[in-house]
Amino acid sequence: MPSIYVANDAAAYEQSMGRWSRRLAKLFLDFANVGRARRLLDVGCGTGSLSFSLADGLPKASITGIDYGQAYVDYARSQASDRRLTFEQGDASALPYPDAAFDATLSLLVLNFVPDAVRAAAEMARVTKTGGVVAASVWDFRGGTTFLRVLADTAAALDPSGEAFRAKLFSGAFTAPGEFAAAWTKLDLHHVEQRGLTIRMDFESFADYWGPWLRGQGTVGAYVTGLGEEKRQTLERQVRLAYLAGGADGPRSFAATAWAVRGIKP
Fold first, then answer.
1. Using an 8 Å Cβ cutoff, are 112 and 218 in contact?
2. What is the C-alpha separation between 167 and 43, in angstroms, rounded?
3. Which residues pair with 142 in a beta bridge?
4. Rounded distance, CA 159 to CA 43, Å?
């Protein structure tokens, strides 16, 4: 089942979102608290942010990362010098692993882009052993991603297509308060906990903020590059004004919050 996330340029993804995934991964792993898990699965591994953090924090563990985007899998493999890391192409909604194959199963910032996110969550639970952690996170698009509100609210004010883009992006699965915990509870996982995790997204300039979207990755990049030249230039001018907010061009730091959930496989 394909993702709704454009994923064909790993280097562009690293610049647009990968750098923030790496920053969030550390907080997410502290929250997930996988203990002494020895075999772990990273669902929707992308370019490997979570997998590499797992390898650093768990020196005796083996980590398998799976992602539907072959370009991202290839990139992660190219960065992996540790034999404990394996990266594979596959579908989060139909994981190619037997029941109870992993001590812990994690997913960082991907489930809201999977067309059947509930099924993907159930697959995560299925492949986890009894007593293992099942944990995931997604961006709190509606209330916790200032850097995207700058762009999406501007787009919505300019054009009906911008409103459709904002509605699609901000209404993904598990993005509402309490929605993650409710889903994990329905999976019959125990000791379910949902929490907000906040990082800072630091940009050197407007070019550092805007430029990565012009390479077309993700739902935001696809929207920006899919506009005609005139509309794209209009959006850029208005987003630039929002970024500057009356000041000179230069560094900006935006707070960004993700929802995270964990539960224990009974």
1. no
2. 25
3. none
4. 35
CA 175/CA 12 separation, integer angstroms: 25
Whole-angstrom distance, CA of residue 257 vs CA of residue 144: 5
Distance, CA of 74 to CA of 10 (rounded, Å): 9
Give the Cβ contact number of residue 158 at 10 Å: 17
pLDDT digits (tens, 9 = 90+) for 210-233: 999 999 888 899 999 999 999 999
CATH class of 10-264: alpha beta
The rounded distance, in Å, linking the Cα atoms of 106 and 227 is 35
Going from N- to C-terminal start, the domains of the chain cover 10-264
Q: Residue 238: what are its φ and ψ, rounded to 5°? A: -75, -40
**Structure confidence at residue 246 (pLDDT):** 97
Across-strand partners of 105? 41, 134
- Give the angle subtended at the CA of 167 by the CAs of 165 and 171, to the nearest 5°: 125
- In the predicted structure, residue 1 carries a pLDDT above the cut 90: no
CB 23 within 8 A of CB 50: no
The structure's pTM equals: 0.93
- How far is Cα 35 from Cα 118, in angstroms, rounded to an integer? 26
> Is 110 strand, coil or helix?
coil
Average model confidence (pLDDT) across the chain: 94
Q: Which H helix or E strand runs over 203?
A: strand 190-203
Q: Given this model, what pLDDT does residue 3 score?
A: 55
**How many whole angstroms separate alpha carbon 196 and alpha carbon 194?**
7
3-state secondary structure (DSSP) of residue 137: strand
User: What dihedral angle (degrees, nearest 10) is formed by the CA atoms of 19, 25, 110, 161?
Assistant: -40
Residue 4 structure tokens: 């709704």
